[in-house]
Description:
Layout: E1 3-8, H1 22-30, E2 33-36, H2 43-52, E3 56-58, H3 67-71, E4 75-80, E5 83-88, H4 97-104, E6 110-112, E7 120-123, E8 129-132, E9 145-153, E10 156-165
Parallel strand pairs: 1-2, 2-3, 5-6, 6-8
Antiparallel strand pairs: 1-9, 4-5, 7-8, 9-10
Amino acid sequence: MPSRLLVISDTHLPRRARDLPAEVWAEVDAADVVVHAGDWVDVALLDRLEERARRLVGVFGNNDHGVLRERLPEVARAEVEGLRLGVVHETGPAQGRERRCAELYPDLDVLFFGHSHIPWDSTTSTGLRLLNPGSPTDRRRQPFCTYLTAVAAGGRLEEVTLHRLPPRTA
């Protein structure tokens, strides 16, 4: 049975926004699995996602400390509908990313990562798909805040969609 994934990263709550956008909370409710690739900043979001998500797979990022590092791993692995997925916050510079990740994660089909706030979608020579959802709350130098949805089915990742959020109003 296909599973709907929501992938977010670099939420930086409450520093960059007071809360996740309503559209993202609606996706949390619709998802079978919520993936967060680090930089939560405040444990309150982790608590809320654990309460609301059917299944949560998350890691800590470089801006996460204390309780977040106690409760979350640096690297997470999960199997969803036969798809072997991994989550990590940082993968290093864009140059050489595919080679590094293929060497570090030969047991995965897809690796979700964050840190840069820059959406990314590439596939290594070994077939590992690398995906960064950007950030739903802190676009930095990107034109939009973003997040990803996808469907895991039969060991494959399908319907990968990068969603652009409308500009926030004060």
